[in-house]
Amino acid sequence: MQTHEIRRRFLDHFVKAAHTEVPSASLILDDPNLLFVNAGMVQFVPFFLGQQTPPYPRATSVQKCVRTLDIENVGITTRHNTFFQMAGNFSFGDYFKRDAIKHAWSLLTSGVDDGGYGFDPERIWVTVYLDDDEARDIWRDEVGVPESRIQRRGMADNYWSMGIPGPCGPCSEIYFDRGPEFGAEGGPEADEDRYIEIWNLVFMQNERGLGISKDNFEILGPLPKQNIDTGMGVERVAFLLQGVDNVYETDLVRPVIAKAEELSGRKYGADHDDDVRFRVIADHARTAAMLIADGVNPGNDGRGYVLRRLLRRIVRSAKLLGADKPSMREFITVVRDTMAPSYPVLDTDFGRIETVAVGEETAFLKTLTSGSKLFEGAAESVKASGKSTIGGEQAFALHDTYGFPIDLTLEMAAEAGLTVDEEGFRALMAEQRQRAKDDAQARKHAHADLTVYKELLDRGPTEFTGFHELVSEAHVLA
Ligand code: ATP
Ligand code: MG
Ligand code: MG
Ligand code: MG
């Protein structure tokens, strides 16, 4: 089943059950605390918090989501996109646990000819919160999921709150078992790559007070009105229904991989590191296009910085795959062709999206070219002196002067049969970070320099410090 069809069936299923279909909100909301919309419920928060009266008791949507937290997983796990579509159904003080569970079950397991997804009920596992016997009873006694396929999980996995005083409650998650060839028996608690999480049902039933952490707070008592918030991953369902190996090989993402094969001359499926690069290109090209469509421009901090990193990662991955010409325009064009049926803005605004993406590619390719020359010079002199290690100062100069990422230096060094004094490099990075912290003037100058990696240093840790460089474990922020 095609991804566009999976979306459509979700909305139809819930509209039939008296939900109002609400369009996706933009990825960018006017909220400085939220980098990107990362869940379907975000646009409904004022209703859940009781700050606004919802105009409908039930709603359904397919929300565009971007999760920067998952960037490191892209291409490596089977199931994490940076951009994905979260389909959801919401009840504002209307139906609760029983109906939420039954609606989800019927969509997942109804036959394809009856408007459902046709999942084999025998391969579905569910989780409930530790003490949520009510949900367990509904799953077991009313839906008929055997107790052996119901697992209880703790606060971290199966209890939801927004991290602030307000509504909170247990969740119940639905998983699909891909089968013994993908891991050992034991349910999602044991293996989340064999058992793929499809859908999270959140039962907002309590009010939480202040707490010491996201997973440790006081529950004050029941909410006057109970709410339902659910999120189903459209790409995950596509992955499972299309019989492919991961979310990057589905109908809307795989065509970018095919384009990258064509431009690079390499084959997907032949080499693990290359495969990661193919998947990164396909995932990031889509995310970048969607972000630009919603008004983000490459920049040196916040949202713009995320976009810049995504675009540069595409460029570098393509280069590492051996593509010798600019390829951004072609990747973005494939994204438009696959995604525009659900997101027409990709078509209507294509000129702008293309200009922004290609502009960043052009600038970064220049950086790579000048850095490569310097690298080759350094490598030659190391070899000429009979050594095999590129010094920390040289790696640092490449990074500092040319914005040349350390993992690219590592990769190129390995290709040349050399190693890099990473420890020395990191020591110099730490020194520079300290200097920059101490010196506000230095920070100003650094911002005038267009090397994004340098700016990141000068700004100190940001919320993206977990953003690893592709393939290599090394990353500039370590
Ligand atoms: P996971 O444990 O697999 O990282 P999650 O528990 O973080 O997923 P939720 O926050 O519960 O995910 O989001 C609801 C649903 O959205 C998930 O059940 C999944 O189907 C989907 N989803 C979450 N993150 C991603 C992602 N990075 N790419 C694709 N789909 C996702
Ligand atoms: Mg997650
Ligand atoms: Mg999860
Ligand atoms: Mg979840």
Automatic annotation (TrEMBL):
Q: What biological process terms from GO does the record include?
A: alanyl-tRNA aminoacylation
Q: Where in the cell is it found?
A: Cytoplasm
**Cofactor(s) required, per the database record:** Zn(2+)
The note on the cofactor says:
Binds 1 zinc ion per subunit.
Record's GO cellular component, any one? cytosol
- Which keywords has UniProt assigned to this entry? Aminoacyl-tRNA synthetase, ATP-binding, Cytoplasm, Ligase, Metal-binding, Nucleotide-binding, Protein biosynthesis, RNA-binding, tRNA-binding, Zinc
Q: What is its EC number?
A: 6.1.1.7
**GO MF annotations, alphabetized:** alanine-tRNA ligase activity; aminoacyl-tRNA deacylase activity; ATP binding; tRNA binding; zinc ion binding
Q: Coiled-coil stretches, from where to where? A: none
Domain Alanyl-transfer RNA synthetases family profile, first and last residues per copy? 1-478
**Annotated catalysed reactions:** tRNA(Ala) + L-alanine + ATP = L-alanyl-tRNA(Ala) + AMP + diphosphate
Relate the protein's function as given in its record. Catalyzes the attachment of alanine to tRNA(Ala) in a two-step reaction: alanine is first activated by ATP to form Ala-AMP and then transferred to the acceptor end of tRNA(Ala). Also edits incorrectly charged Ser-tRNA(Ala) and Gly-tRNA(Ala) via its editing domain.
The UniProt similarity line reads: Belongs to the class-II aminoacyl-tRNA synthetase family.
The record's note on its domains: Consists of three domains; the N-terminal catalytic domain, the editing domain and the C-terminal C-Ala domain. The editing domain removes incorrectly charged amino acids, while the C-Ala domain, along with tRNA(Ala), serves as a bridge to cooperatively bring together the editing and aminoacylation centers thus stimulating deacylation of misacylated tRNAs.
What's the name of the protein? Alanine--tRNA ligase
Organism encoding this protein: Rhodococcus koreensis
Q: Which gene encodes it?
A: alaS
